[in-house]
Every structure is written in structure tokens, then in C-alpha cells.
Please model this.
Amino acid sequence: MSQIRASRRRTVLLAAGVAAGALLLSACGDEQTGSSSGDTKFVQGTGEITEVPKSRRSSVPDLSGPSVDGKELKLSDFEGKVVVLNVWGSWCSPCRAEAPNLAKVARDTEDQGVQFVGINTRDLDKANAKAFERNYDIDYPSFYDPSGKLILKFPKNTLSPQAIPSTLILDKDGKVAVRALKELSEKELRSALDPLIDAK
Model:
């Protein structure tokens, strides 16, 4: 009898472990929550990269607030530059996958008038965000936005607080030229940036 109970207990523990693993793997997926996200539901990115014609581009709010490293950060300080605005969380697997691509392209394009800026979201412990930046050699600044309030300032259909990671690329006039609701490869990022770098 005790062997049957032990076998049932092992089965229950195994099922619980599998369920926990599945939840962790889908932290940024459809209708699941990130590990630091409280009860906020996230939906998976659409996998789309949308380019916006110059005549239809909209401005973004002038964000300001503390950065992950505790300094004051203001988006308007980068006026006249092409700005890559990336929303990320240390708990998000696709964010970890794209981080080396962002870090590399940020370094390669710094002398070409491109500024990368992050918006760290749902990391309730700033130490996790700092560790992420160290681990992936992120040199550019990120707003620390654990509650997601900065994301909510964006006009409808520009930046979705439900798709993490997501990226906006702003032209030199500070208007949205590209939106990506997906993890970006190095090639995709460079392809989106090149025309904006060359634009007069």
C-alpha cells in the first residue's frame, strides 16, 4: 500500500514539475505571466516588423524618469538621432535571446548617430535588471519602469504593453518609423536601421 502511495506522490510531483517548467518557458507567451510581472497578462508578439511611411509617422511622448542605474534619463536628450527604443524584462526569454544583437548593433552604430534606449518593465527588483545589463554587456541606458506606466503613455497602436519584447525605431525627427513586436535578429535590426541612418 505504501508503495502505491509513494508512486502516486512521485507522479503528482512530476506533473507539478512539468507544469512549472512549461509556465517558465512560456513566460512571454500567450496569456501567461512573467516571473516578475504580478498578475499582468502578456500576449506573444505578432512576429511583425512594420515600417511606417514618412507621411504617416507619429511622435512619441518625451519620456523622463530614473534609469536602471539610478540616473535621470530623458528621451528628448537624444533629439536629432535615430533612436532604437526597446522594451524588455530580465524574466523574458525572447528578451534574453535578442539582447546580444541589440548590444552589438548599438556599439556598431553609435558613431552613425544612433542611440539605443531601453524600457525595463515588470522587474520589481532592480537588481535583476542590473544583472541582465551586465550579463549581456548592455552599455546603453534603460528607463526603469516596473509598473509599465511609461509604456502606457504611448499613442494607441505604437507600443503594446502586452508584447514583450517590442521595439520602436524613431527617425531623426523623433517619429515612429519602425515597430517590431518580436525578438529581433541582428540582420533584421540592421535592415530596419540602415535607411534611417542614411536619410537626410
Residues 58-198 form a domain with the Glutaredoxin fold (CATH 3.40.30.10). The beta strands are 49-51, 64-66, 72-74, 82-88, 114-121, 142-145, 166-170, 176-180. The first helix runs from residue 2 to 25.
